[in-house]
Specification:
The chain is an alpha+beta fold and 122 residues long. It is built from 4 helices and 3 strands; from the N terminus they run H-E-H-E-E-H-H. The model has no long low-confidence stretch (mean pLDDT 90).
Length: 122
């Protein structure tokens, strides 16, 4: 059996994930973050087969991130008024994440946690 080729991650999207990694390194007490969705991220979402529609007038896309374990993060996307602040507390970021995540994201996260525990990484 041949090995599946790993998808190439564009450099600009890698920069976005690196910024998230650095955020959680600087804030080890945090598991959640909210930030503006980057153009590179929107393009990557589209390449994955999903779609982020153009935001409604006066709104923009935000990314809510949950760090499940060091280096393992799950992202969900939400439209909100463009003037919303992204400098929010852990409690607010966690609440936003919970309100946006769907059942598919909860299932994915549960599988990630199970696999990480099985591998002894948690």
């Amino acid at each position: 059996m041949g090995r599946r080729k790993m998808p190439v991650v564009p450099v600009d999207f890698e920069a976005v994930t690196e910024a998230d990694r650095r955020f959680f390194v600087r804030h080890p007490d945090r598991s959640h973050r909210v930030r503006h969705t980057s153009q590179a991220e929107m393009a990557q979402v589209t390449r994955s087969g999903s779609m982020l529609d153009a935001p409604m007038p006066g709104f923009r896309w935000f990314t809510a991130i949950r760090q499940v374990a060091e280096g393992v993060r799950v992202r969900v996307y939400v439209q909100a008024p463009e003037l919303c602040d992204t400098d929010v507390s852990e409690a607010v970021a966690a609440q936003i994440y919970r309100e946006v995540e769907g059942q598919g994201t909860r299932d994915l996260t549960a599988r990630l946690v199970s696999a990480l525990k099985k591998a002894g990484a948690m």
